[in-house]
Design brief:
This protein is an alpha/beta fold and about 600 residues long. About 35% of the residues lie in helices and about 20% in strands. Bound molecules: 2-deoxy-2-amino glucitol-6-phosphate (AGP). InterPro entries: GATase_2_dom (IPR017932), GFAT (IPR005855), GFAT_N (IPR047084), GlmS/AgaS_SIS (IPR035466), GlmS/FrlB_SIS (IPR035490), Ntn_hydrolases_N (IPR029055), SIS_dom (IPR001347), SIS_dom_sf (IPR046348).
């Protein structure tokens, strides 16, 4: 999704802007651009190709400057086209980059058109540029402060003006924006990763803040104009120079990193106590009466698995809700509920808004399970569990999901211990199982050649059904999401018992059905559901435990998993489904790491 980077320094900052854009590429974008104050005045260059294309044009033009702003755009208002790419100009003297959506842009556009401003793009961002321009009388900071008071919606902006080439002004409301400080200059960005290797101290802006950067100074004021005295914090930003190595795609690499990710997560974990979730956790967890999980997409499915664990192991009532639904309804809440947000990026606008909403309803016991330490969600939550998945580049989340599952399982056992439902012996058995996961995951990856054979057949289809029961139902949902988002095959997941209540009507010879059949209490039920599909001519692809009583036969293709892994089996079953989506997408020639229309961090609603 959109990304911002800006810099003001003693030296030429164009390479820093380009490098920042490259680091933001993983978020997904359809155009990019920079605007700098050079010796010739305000200069802008934009591209609807990759950042590397913009870079070669900038080099050819020998563009140099000590201050400027840059952007990767993920289209919301207006098609991906040069005229809609940021930075947006006003009066050829002022440039703006913007993440987010301005909800009252039509009214502002009418007003500014009546005042004589000509609009050349279809974006809401151009409204911001003209609005600031209309309020500018030599003081850019004052003009931005006045302008943002008129904006409704979510935004993070960075603005430059050719009259004051040594100044960048920024503002945020609902979209992440931070300042990076360094010896030789100051930076602004929507994601700390953009400033890897450039800044070593970070100041996270709050909603309503407006800031002004020069190469030596940082000024921040709140919505009410009060100066903010927060010191920039030292945060180690992970080096995002991610190498593909021998892998074809980041998604494949990230699938194969899962044994190491889980090993890293479990390193040093010898007991499952609240302290594992941070110093504030013992007080946060004490006396909770329920758990409310809020998340989107794959993280939501991790939450659905966690519900089974939390209710079965910790015996605590757990609700899981899609964040974009929760934030707009009137939920019946408990002040003693533990609100858990799950997010790989920690920036997902809907999850952040749902968290703030829960807090506004008096739900102050909050825990976030997040993969990005510098993210807004981590800043906002009292208690944090940082997953150790490392930077995830592929838009399709894989290793972050596995890391979330491990964290949530540990949470369930921890709460079970606290609430007296898990004995010390049981805890040590769970720990043993957890520590066995990396090796089990490695065996899962060895199934790849068998999965490739399935993928070749699946790639010819346009629809697929995924079936699971109990703990495996969310895994089926995740398998279907993976397949649709990267291969563009329409896929749906159902609890297998629900099949005969509607979706069975879709089953013909052309409908592949992927079924998850662990060797558990639901095995016989799943086998009956598979027969229902076979009776209608459907081809069934079964992932089964080693000892499951099901064998390959006409129309039923079985891949055997190494062994049944009890309550942690969702972590294992996820892997072949990730590989299936990956290889199916490759066979269809899809751009696996950058699926159409999608972004890595969804920072707009
Ligand atoms: C996963 O493959 C997706 N691309 C998407 O559903 C993602 O999980 C969702 O947008 C939530 O993101 P988050 O974990 O960063 O909050």
């Amino acid at each position: 999704m959109c990304g911002i980077v800006g810099a003001v320094a003693r030296e030429n900052i164009v390479p820093a802007l380009v490098e920042g854009l490259r680091r933001l590429e993983y978020r997904g974008y359809d155009s990019c651009g920079v605007a700098v104050n050079s010796a010739r005045g305000l200069e802008r260059m934009r591209s609807i190709e990759r950042v590397s294309h913009l870079d070669s044009r900038l080099r050819r033009a020998r563009l140099e400057s000590a201050s400027g702003i840059a952007h990767t755009r993920w289209a919301t208002h207006g098609a991906p086209a040069i005229r809609n790419a940021h930075p947006m100009l006003s009066g050829d003297a002022l440039a703006v980059v913007h993440n987010g959506i301005i909800e009252n842009y039509e009214a502002l556009r009418d007003e500014l058109s009546n005042a004589g401003y000509a609009f050349v793009s279809q974006t809401d961002t151009e409204v911001i540029a003209h609005l600031i321009h209309s309020l500018y009388d030599g003081d850019l900071f004052a003009a931005v402060r006045e302008a943002v008071q008129r904006l409704r919606g979510a935004y993070a902006i960075a603005v430059v003006h050719e009259d004051t080439p040594h100044i960048i002004v920024g503002a945020r409301e609902g979209s992440p924006l931070l300042i990076g400080a360094a010896e030789d200059g100051n930076f602004i960005a929507s994601d700390a990763l953009a400033l890897t290797g450039r800044a070593d101290r970070f100041l996270f802006l709050d909603d309503g803040d407006v800031c002004e950067l020069t190469r030596d100074t940082i000024r921040v004021v709140t919505r009410n104009g009060e100066p903010v005295e927060r010191e920039p914090q030292r945060i180690s930003v992970e080096n995002s120079a991610v190498e593909l190595g021998s892998y074809r795609h980041y998604m494949q690499k990230e699938i194969f990193e899962q044994p190491e990710v889980v090993a890293a997560t479990l390193r040093g974990v010898e007991a499952l106590t609240p302290e594992l979730f941070g110093d504030a956790a013992p007080a946060t967890f004490d006396g909770i009466d329920s758990v409310q999980i809020l998340a989107c997409g794959t993280s939501y499915y991790a939450g659905l698995v966690a519900k089974y664990w939390l209710e079965t192991i910790a015996k605590i009532k757990t609700d899981v809700e899609i964040a974009s639904e929760y934030r707009y309804r009137e939920p019946v809440t408990s002040r003693r509920a533990l609100v858990v947000t799950i997010s790989q990026s920690g920036e997902t606008a809907d999850t952040l808004a749902a968290l703030k909403y829960a807090q506004s309803l008096g739900q102050t016991r909050t825990l976030t399970v997040c993969n990005v330490p510098s993210s807004a969600m981590v800043q906002l939550c009292g208690t944090r569990y940082l997953t150790r998945a490392g930077q995830e580049v592929g838009v399709a989340s894989t290793k972050a999901f596995t890391a979330q599952l491990v964290a949530l399982f540990m949470l369930a056992v921890t709460l079970g211990r606290e609430r007296g439902h898990v004995t010390a012996l049981r805890e040590s058995q769970y720990l043993q199982q957890l520590h066995g996961l990396p090796q089990m995951l490695t065996s899962m990856l060895e199934l790849e050649p068998q999965i490739v054979a399935w993928a070749t057949r699946l790639a010819e289809k346009e629809n697929a059904l995924f079936l699971g029961r109990g703990l495996q139902y969310p895994v089926a949902l995740e398998g279907a999401l993976k397949l649709k988002e990267i291969s563009y095959i329409h896929a749906e997941a159902y609890p297998a018992g629900e099949l005969k209540h509607g979706p069975l009507a879709l089953v013909t010879e052309a409908m592949p059905v992927i079924a998850i059949v662990p060797d558990d209490a639901m095995q016989e039920k799943m086998k009956s559901n598979i027969q229902e599909v076979r009776a209608r001519g459907g081809q069934v692809y079964v992932l089964a435990d080693k000892d499951a009583q099901i064998a390959s036969e006409e129309g039923i293709h079985v891949i055997r998993m190494p062994a049944h892994y009890g309550p942690l089996s969702p972590v294992l079953y996820t892997v072949p489904l990730q590989l299936l989506a990956y290889h199916t997408a490759c066979t269809r020639g899809a751009d696996v790491d950058k699926p159409r229309n999608l972004a890595k961090s969804v920072t707009v609603e």
